[in-house]
From TrEMBL:
Keywords: Lyase, Pyridoxal phosphate. The keyword Lyase applies. Its cofactor is pyridoxal 5'-phosphate. The gene is ltaE. It comes from Alkalicella caledoniensis. This is Low-specificity L-threonine aldolase.
Length: 335
């Protein structure tokens, strides 16, 4: 079966499995797991920040950033179709007591003039704008990249207004590879970033939250509050270390494979609005019967695709080979 629903379906390879089995472990709640400590040290240096914390999921990482940077009753600005607003079960409001001000963007980017207008003035009726959250790459825009110039422009606005800038970097390595730059360059002017290790990088679980030492120390306590103290967490950290070292080197292959899928889909008269920039391809099939038939046809031929109504998503990753991609392209051409 060729799995194209998400890059979260990646399966740990033999190298990761051996590392997990052989990992040195301790109690991470006591900061005594040597493999976790090593991962966090390497991650902080890798992204050019003072410190990092290993967490079970990207959703928890984003929530920890909000809990740490904000107070109850504050507001954060995020793009309308961002993951933190659409797909994290309203945790920011329910658990952090913080509301999101969602701004409709273009290709995942909030226009700068809209962003300036969304920052609250000091007024007894208004919440305080405490954080801006950007998503890079932007899932719902077909994996669109937020360029370093745009991030730096937003960082300037955040700094001027004493606002915390957080990056939901679930696929930050895809953004860096697409631009041919070091991830540090993308993040040098941001306050915190969440990086997912279990998507395209291939670890079976885990994400990182990276920032200043003071910020991460505070986030560590909130992680415990949320039930994220994972004890002998080094088995997962061992796989994460390999993902961090090896995963980015081959992401360009995923981008090339996804581009091939998008090019095939653009040639078909039954598709509309094909979007692809990195390893995510989104498209729309306006005819209801064709939409249903396409999903059934692909499944019958050994390919799983994600469907929501008449909208589709295909995501490439290291368990989708070039040969797999050729098969999917052929299926698209023959439908």
């Amino acid at each position: 079966m060729i799995e194209l629903r998400s890059d979260t379906f990646t399966v740990a390879d033999e190298k990761m499995r051996r590392a997990m089995a052989q990992a040195q472990v301790g109690d991470d709640v006591y900061n005594e797991d040597p493999t976790v400590n090593n991962l966090q040290k390497i991650a902080g240096e890798f992204f050019g920040k003072e410190s990092a914390i290993f967490v079970p999921s990207g959703t928890m990482g984003n929530l920890l950033a909000v809990l740490t940077a904000c107070q109850r009753g504050d507001e954060i600005i995020a793009e309308y179709n961002s993951h933190i607003f659409q797909y994290e079960v309203a945790g920011v409001s329910a658990l952090a007591g913080v509301q999101i001000n969602p701004i409709k963007g273009i290709d995942g980017k909030i226009p700068i003039d809209y962003l300036n207008g969304a920052i609250r003035d000091e007024n007894i009726h208004f919440p305080t704008t405490r954080m801006i959250c950007l998503e890079n790459t932007h899932n719902m825009s077909g994996g669109k990249v937020l360029e370093v110039e745009y991030i730096n422009a937003v960082a300037g606005i955040a700094k001027k207004n004493n606002i915390h800038l957080h990056i939901d970097g679930a696929r930050i390595f895809n953004a860096a590879v697409a631009q041919g730059i070091d991830p540090k360059k993308l993040l040098e002017n941001v306050d915190s970033v969440m990086v997912c290790l279990s998507k395209g990088l291939g670890a079976p679980m885990g994400s990182l939250l990276v920032g200043t030492e003071e910020f991460i120390n505070s986030a560590r306590k909130y992680r415990k509050m949320l039930g994220g103290g994972m004890r002998q967490w080094g088995h997962a950290a061992a796989a994460a270390l390999i993902a961090l070292e090896d995963g980015p080197k081959r992401l360009h292959e995923d981008h090339e494979n996804c581009k091939a899928l998008a090019e095939a889909l653009k040639e078909k008269k039954w598709t509309e609005d094909v979007q692809q920039s990195t390893n995510i391809c989104r498209f729309f099939v306006p005819d209801n019967n064709q939409a249903d038939n396409f999903q059934e046809y692909m499944l019958k031929n050994g390919v799983r695709v994600q469907k929501a109504g008449n909208s589709f998503r295909m995501v490439t990753h290291f368990n989708v080979s070039q040969e797999d991609t050729k098969k999917v392209v052929e299926l698209i051409n023959n439908f």
